[in-house]
Amino acid sequence: MSTINLNQQFAHKVQQQWKTLKKAFWDLNLGKTGHIIKDELAYYLTHWGFKYSEEGLNCLFNSIDVDQDGKISYEDFQNSIGKEISPPEFLYFW
User: What would the mean pLDDT of 41-58 be, rounded to a whole number?
Assistant: First the structure.
């Protein structure tokens, strides 16, 4: 599976699975530490039956970890997955 495909599949699954980005983040954060680590992301990918390589996992994790601090904060999650699955509010007409 290509990295782009894994990223798209992950974003699509998050959009299907949860009604809000916040709920998705807190469910993905199995340890309830306030940030998602790579093992938690791998757990869900495996749980969902996604086929991925270690390189694919690293690329997905790094694409979501916007500030590249080794963990995915809610802000990282909003600025990556959130932009893919929810159009920014300013695009709506008033």
Answer: 95
